[in-house]
Amino acid sequence: MIVSSLCLRPRCTMASRLLLLPALLLLFCGSVRPISFQLSPNGRKCLREEIHKDVLVTGEYDVSEPHGQGQVRLKITDSSNHILYSKEDATKGKFAFTTEEYDMFEVCFESRHPAGAGRAPDQMVVLNMKHGVEAKNYEEIAKVEKLKPLEVELRRLEDLSESIVNDFAYMKKREEEMRDTNESTNVRVLYFSIFSMCCLMGLATWQVFYLRRFFKAKKLIE
Prior knowledge:
Domain GOLD: 44-196
Signal peptide: 1-34
Strand content: 25-35%
Number of helices: 3
CATH architecture of the domain at 32-135: Sandwich
Family: Belongs to the EMP24/GP25L family.
Helix content: 40-55%
Radius of gyration: 31 Å
Order of helices and strands: HEEEEEEEEHH
Transmembrane segments: 189-211
Strand order of the largest sheet: 1-8-3-6
Structural class: alpha+beta
Number of strands: 8
Mean pLDDT: 80
Largest sheet: 4 strands, antiparallel
Subcellular location: Endoplasmic reticulum membrane; Membrane
Oligomer: single chain
CATH class of the domain at 32-135: Mainly Beta
């Protein structure tokens, strides 16, 4: 992997880092864009995403003003239905949490309107979620560690390269696990096929001897 061989460690010279800067800046061309959707009265919409272990997840949400006495509930859960964040009257705010395991996380917006309130218009929901390198606040890091703008950008690129390397390592691990599962399944299918053939051959042999004895008993054959 090319990314794993990049020289972004403190022992590298500033000149080496500057040579890598133009290439890695291409990775930042795709900016994170918020997700927006319409939420109908008493409706529910959820977004799911798989996130790795020990990854910081941050988000901002903005819900348009409800009609009448309605409100929108925001709830973030994992695959075990553990609540990571919950807000009963979600209008505008932020949330943050760190994942403990690789898991599927679900972000749900649920509209609640009282009965008999009449038909209410849909509400606009804007959600902007970030995780990993995107979620880090490098401005605070620069203030704490007193870094220069170029050093902050290099720190960002270093974290991004490490994130990419970790993703490749995880995909390689998953590929090895899937290959092992595939090979194990093939071996089991082979043994099961051999066992099935032996059973069929044994059953066919038994039927031949049984029918032969039956026909001899009826004196149909000698």
